[in-house]
Amino acid sequence: MKSRYIASLSLAIMFIGFIVTRLWLPDNWWTRLLESGFEAGLVGGIADWFAVTALFRHPFGIPIPHTSLLLKNRDKIVNSLISAMENELLNKESISKKLKELKLFRGLASGVTGLIGKRKLRVGVLRFAQSSLEQVPLDKLSAKIQELAADYIRKQDIVPIVDKLTDKFVFEGWDEKALDFVLVQGQEWVKKRETEQFFGRLAHSKMEELQVGGFMGFAVQAFVGFMSPEKLGPIIQGMLLSSIKELSTPGNPNRQKLLDELKKHALALSSNEELMARLKAGLESGAESVGVERFIHLRLEELRQLLLDKLEAECLNGGRILVKAFRFLVEQAKSREELIHRWEQSILAYLVSWIEKNHYRIGALVRDNVNQMDDQALVQMLEQKIGKDLQWIRVNGAVCGFIVGIILSFF
Hints:
The protein has about 400 residues and is an all-alpha fold. It contains 20 helices and no strands. It is rod-shaped.
């Protein structure tokens, strides 16, 4: 707008100067000299105004031939612009060449090195991580995890899983480990004083309930009368501890027999269709229960609090963990230069391929944006971009015309 004002002002000066020198100044050679200058400047200014205006619109709205050139040649201009962008400014060969020469990871590492050295930035990253972690909706997350787990169990055939577990149980020594664990726990329980008393009371009460007639009944009653719970308890406890010790001894025939039974029943589990159906139903029911969701939610709460505490400690420490993590990644990258190079080349190859496939979209995007603009908007945009320089053509035309007019007046 400022350059247009100056151009119009220069034309107005030429017009006023011509009128003044023509009508009101005395007729002498100085006046004729100035008159010639202003006249030529006026002609030059008008001619250049017409030329500049003719680029964008019809002068005075009159459809003079070869005016409003930009609008008449709109498609040609757009096609030329797209062709220049696709084939000269942003041709895919030059873009692909630049990408292939790009040191992606080196540039990334250099940029991160500059950023990671700033304490304020490190703390800011950790604070952002804290804020993001606090905003995680654990109720929705736990429900989603439960839903995925239940859906996974629902779709799974548990027979192969049971077969795999039983194979490990039988052929990798899990049966012996399980038996030894049960025996150790059982031994600890049997050794307790209250267990001894429990066995004594239980055995004595059961013996009193026996209904046996004849001489056998007399003998049983006599034995019950002689044996009190306090005497029966240690006897039963000793028998059980002796049996547990016997079963805990490797190579013991009873132990081996018990292990064989365990293996036999373990291997037969997956063939029991009713048991497998009940097991899967139980797993599905358990996975969908409120208790499981609550358990998942509590574990997530504990994990989040643990992470928040760790992040807070690192914030107070200036975010040094980010520096250590970055150094660790750099060291790992240096030790795997060949692998990093392959990754880099793969990424760059993908980018090159993507650009080659989508390069045409640049022109399509330019065309779509231009087509969305009506004639008035297009002219306004072009005037904003190049109108300033064109208006100076008008100024130069008026000034040059003035100078040429003065020179010609001498001939």
